């Protein structure tokens, strides 16, 4: 008797969801990235019970065509790439076409959207998802609202792995903070159990940006930090942002944000370069605080290593490492007691 059979699409999606949807924070990350990819300028995030009960994200982006709504929920369905070559230059945050399919397979999902040219909005609703998502007309301004309820309601084993509401909310808040630091031009609002946690206006002027960094990282960080604004003309690398004074060091590496061409990353090479620059001014076991933005030719960095991990691959690792090290070392040099040891940039 034959023993091999194809998994049902629903089960296949639920298994795949394990990769993308680990916890409420991962849902928020995927949904906010979709909104940003759609050109949103205003993002509203409503959360109940740390996102386990409800995650509602409303944007003012381009919206989704009526006929595309059910497709948006299908696996491997995306509007962002067409061919393998597109991956070389992918500018969007997503492109795998897996997030909505995964999320909808482990929650109750309502997707409401309106394109600017449409007379009204359309809505699809799914519950743990089987493909017959029903379309109905709806009222909604231009943009998209995704409402996710009851995460993991149909996968109790996974639900058991969720931590306390407090912990889950911290992860979720961290996702919002990272994105808020990566897009000063976008307004963010985060509400948890009807309480406003973040209310961030677009911040294009430097003073406004500093205010946003203070709102996200705490005013003490901005007050006790140095501005970085460096560029290496030969290689076209630039590094901007804020680095904490040595006296503002932390017992944990919990205030470290590093963006490469606008994307938050975590990378050994970067961490090492920053550490080294601080080596002679920080006590053992202390960690520097920083919010830094590295810009470089996109051809010199591969950001598509893994969808959920924040890894990148630099083509010229040594060059990037040295640039980061020297830039920070020099800025710290201005306050270092023995300034004569600063290497030339
Ligand atoms: P990906 O982002 O990798 O394309 P997703 O499953 O996250 O895959 O989304 C599928 C598709 O649904 C996207 O390619 C996009 O066309 C559409 N979409 C999802 N969210 C939004 C949104 N907030 N606004 C406009 N379109 C969206
Ligand atoms: Mg996506």
Q: Would you give an account of this structure?
A:
Helices cover 30% and strands 24% of the residues. By secondary structure, it is α+β, with helices and mostly antiparallel strands. The chain has 2 domains: 9-200, 2-Layer Sandwich (Heat Shock Protein 90), CATH 3.30.565; 219-341, Ribosomal Protein S5, domain 2. Strands 5-4-3-6-2-1-7-8 form an 8-stranded mixed β-sheet, with helices on one face. Strands 9-10-13-11-12 form a 5-stranded mixed β-sheet, with helices on both faces. The protein has a two-stranded antiparallel ribbon with strand order 14-15. A hairpin with a 6-residue loop joins strand 4 (121-127) and strand 5 (134-138). Helix 1 packs across helix 4 (99-105), helix 2 (24-37) runs parallel beside helix 6 and helix 9 (268-278) runs parallel beside helix 10. The longest helix is centred in the middle third of the chain and has 18 residues, at 165-182. It is globular, with a radius of gyration of 22 Å.
Gyration radius (Cα, Å) is: 22 Å
Considering DSSP H and I runs of 4 or more, what fraction of the residues is helical?
25-40%
How is the main sheet built? 8 strands, mixed
Mean pLDDT: 91
First-last Cα distance:
72 Å
From the spread of the alpha carbons, the general shape counts as globular
Are there runs of 5+ residues with pLDDT below 50, and where?
A: none
Number of strands: 15
Can you identify the CATH class of the largest domain? Alpha Beta
CATH topological fold name of the largest domain: Heat Shock Protein 90
The percentage of residues in β strands lies in 15-25%
Query: Can you say what the CATH homologous superfamily of the largest domain is?
Result: Histidine kinase-like ATPase, C-terminal domain
Give the CATH architecture of the largest domain: 2-Layer Sandwich
- SS content category: alpha+beta
